[in-house]
């Protein structure tokens, strides 16, 4: 029984190789024609398409100052007038929690978050940059 299964598996494997080679256009029965057989040529790649649509605009860099505070589960910058601006770089802001800082970054108009490029204490003792 095992011998019969081995023969069936080897026959199936051999047939699948022959079918694949035939699909590619290689003749396995004739050794002369296989030496001279060419693989089919691939069509040339399509030309590059021009970029369409509006170009993404980079928002202007802002420099803001205030105190880093927690606002729920995230960090925010509290301005002198008491308004909060969310910070999207919590990994950088946590070490400045409760301190007065100056932040250079970009305000994301969709999420209304300030992306921190640089953050430094107002007295200038500590600073982090990108």
Task: Give me some keywords for this one.
130 residues; alpha+beta; 2 domains; five-stranded mixed beta barrel; 3 helices; 6 strands; elongated
Globular, elongated, flat, extended or rod-shaped: what is the shape?
elongated
Element order: H for helix, E for strand: HHEEEHEEE
**Count of the domains:** 2
Biggest sheet strand line-up: 1-2-3-5-4
Number of strands: 6
Helix content: 10-25%
Give the low-confidence spans: none
- The oligomerization state is single chain
Walk me through what this model shows.
This protein is of the alpha+beta class and 130 residues long. The protein has helices at residues 2-23, 31-36, 90-93, and strands at 61-71, 74-78, 84-87, 100-108, 113-121, 127-129. It contains three helices and six strands. The chain has a five-stranded mixed barrel with strand order 1-2-3-5-4.
Annotate the secondary structure layout:
Layout: H1 2-23, H2 31-36, E1 61-71, E2 74-78, E3 84-87, H3 90-93, E4 100-108, E5 113-121, E6 127-129
Parallel strand pairs: 3-5
Antiparallel strand pairs: 1-2, 1-4, 2-3, 4-5, 5-6
Quick summary of this structure?
With 130 residues, the chain is an alpha+beta fold. The protein folds into 2 domains: 2-36; 61-129. Helix content is 25%, strand content 32%.
């Amino acid at each position: 029984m095992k011998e019969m299964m081995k023969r069936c598996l080897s026959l199936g494997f051999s047939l699948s190789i022959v079918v694949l080679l035939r699909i590619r256009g290689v003749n396995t029965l004739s050794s002369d024609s296989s030496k001279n057989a060419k693989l089919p040529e691939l069509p040339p790649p399509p030309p590059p398409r021009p970029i369409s649509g509006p170009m993404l605009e980079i928002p202007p860099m802002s420099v803001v100052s205030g105190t880093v505070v927690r606002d729920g589960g995230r960090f925010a910058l509290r301005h002198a007038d008491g308004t909060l601006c969310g910070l999207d770089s919590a990994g950088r802001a946590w070490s400045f929690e409760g301190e007065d800082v100056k932040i250079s970054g970009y305000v994301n108009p969709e999420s209304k978050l300030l992306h921190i490029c640089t953050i430094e204490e107002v007295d200038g003792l500590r600073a982090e940059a990108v």
